């Protein structure tokens, strides 16, 4: 991954340092990305790595963690630390979940099955995307703790069937992505004329076919995925529809994509069980704040009535620690585990999770925190020279 202070560029892979293929030589998430980039076709790498517009928000997600410093305490017995916590009342061994990401089989033949097996091996929760390349029932068969992410289609009966299938298959929460009435302007995908290979499809949506490069009215955006969303996704979805979702399934409801206090209060009033502060990994509206910058506002707005998680830009154990200190119950990661998947399938995803988990352990030990429950805002402060509102 580019450094936090340099713009993300579409430079050729040959300009990057040569990445070792040996797992023992991957000592940070950057190493996974370098190796993955060398292995992937340009179109696939850009789909996973890219953001919307000029990718300002994509980079802000990374830079935001540099705007906070840690305030460690000393002479604390940290020979052992406890990472365990709960989300929606569900015990988890460490506060890192796998965010919903699409099309895993573009990165590895085993696709979401490899991701789920890695999650299961460590007790992590995997949030499966509606547009998975493996059926949701097959992912459930891996035994992974799992939530289901939902895009609501114009055909509401299809979306209702998806929710009922997920509930029947043992998914423990429903994650409604709320920030995607249409797909953001992902210029890398347009330049690459993004399309799925013939042997990969949206395994949960066989009733819908990709538009084949032609959007509504025969006009193409240049990205098959953007055309699909324009043609099939329900852009009329509103707060009033949460009651309909509640009626379809008893699963706890988590709202993903909240970035403001106003929407956080509406979500709490609507009775959602959880909020994920997220700008979709910088892939929707370019120019919105980093997810970490929006996190304190959302946490303060809900006043403890709703559990708050966040995703976007987490690349290190210290990033996880800062997010927890600013009020996140847990974080979700996306691109890091995709790079692990590309590098080594199930083993690569597991290595990424173990790396971030172990980095969090060390960060807590060095910060003088014995358990996740002890982490609060006293642990962080704005970085020297940073004034709130600066970018």
Molecular structure report:
- The protein has 391 residues and is an alpha/beta fold.
- The chain has a single domain (29-69, 84-373), classed as Aldolase class I (TIM Barrel, Alpha-Beta Barrel), CATH 3.20.20.70.
- Helix content is 37%, strand content 12%.
- It is built from 13 helices and twelve strands.
- It has helices at residues 29-39, 42-49, 56-63, 111-122, 136-140, 156-168, 187-192, 224-232, 242-248, 261-270, 291-302, 317-325, 335-367, and strands at 68-70, 85-87, 90-92, 96-98, 125-128, 145-150, 174-177, 253-258, 274-277, 307-311, 331-333, 380-382.
- The strands form three sheets. The chain has an eight-stranded parallel beta sheet with strand order 4-11-10-9-8-7-6-5. Strands 1-12 form a two-stranded antiparallel ribbon. It has a two-stranded antiparallel ribbon with strand order 2-3.
- Helix 11 (291-302) links the parallel strand 9 and strand 10 (307-311).
- The longest helix is centred in the C-terminal third of the chain and has 33 residues, at 335-367.
- The protein is globular, with a radius of gyration of 20 Å.
């Amino acid at each position: 991954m580019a450094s936090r202070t340099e713009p993300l560029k579409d430079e050729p892979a040959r300009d990057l340092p040569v990445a070792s293929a040996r797992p023992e030589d991957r000592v940070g998430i950057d190493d996974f990305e370098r190796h993955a980039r060398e292995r992937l076709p340009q179109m696939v790498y850009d789909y996973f790595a890219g953001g919307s517009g000029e990718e300002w928000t994509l980079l802000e997600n990374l830079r935001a963690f540099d705007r906070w410093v840690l305030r460690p305490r000393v002479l604390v017995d940290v020979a052992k630390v406890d990472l365990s916590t709960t989300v929606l009342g569900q015990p988890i061994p460490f506060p890192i979940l796998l965010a919903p990401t699409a099309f895993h089989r573009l990165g590895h033949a085993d696709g979401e099955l490899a991701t789920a097996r890695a999650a299961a091996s460590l007790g992590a929760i995997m949030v499966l995307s509606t547009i998975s390349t493996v059926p949701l029932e097959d992912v459930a068969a891996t035994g992974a703790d799992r939530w289901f992410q939902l895009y609501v289609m114009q055909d509401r009966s299809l979306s209702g069937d998806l929710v009922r299938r997920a509930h029947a298959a043992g998914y423990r929460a429903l994650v409604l992505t709320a920030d995607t009435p249409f797909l953001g302007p992902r210029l890398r995908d347009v330049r690459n004329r993004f399309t799925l290979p013939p042997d990969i499809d949206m395994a949960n949506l066989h009733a819908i076919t990709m538009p084949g490069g032609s959007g509504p009215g025969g006009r193409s955006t240049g990205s098959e995925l953007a055309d699909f969303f324009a043609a099939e996704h329900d852009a009329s979805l509103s707060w009033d529809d949460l009651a309909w979702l509640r009626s379809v399934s008893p699963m706890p409801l988590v709202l993903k994509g909240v970035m403001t206090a106003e929407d956080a209060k509406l979500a709490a009033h609507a009775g959602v069980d959880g909020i994920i502060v997220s700008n979709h990994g910088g892939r929707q509206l370019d120019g919105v704040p980093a997810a970490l910058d929006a996190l304190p506002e959302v946490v303060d707005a809900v006043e403890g009535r709703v559990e708050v998680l966040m995703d976007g830009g987490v690349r290190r154990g210290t990033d996880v620690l800062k997010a927890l200190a600013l009020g996140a119950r847990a974080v979700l990661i996306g691109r890091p585990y995709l790079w692990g998947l590309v590098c080594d399938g199930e083993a690569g995803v597991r290595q990424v999770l173990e790396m971030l988990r172990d980095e969090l352990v060390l960060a807590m030990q060095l910060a003088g925190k014995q358990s996740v429950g002890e982490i609060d805002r006293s642990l962080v402060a704005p970085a020297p020279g940073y004034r709130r509102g600066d970018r």
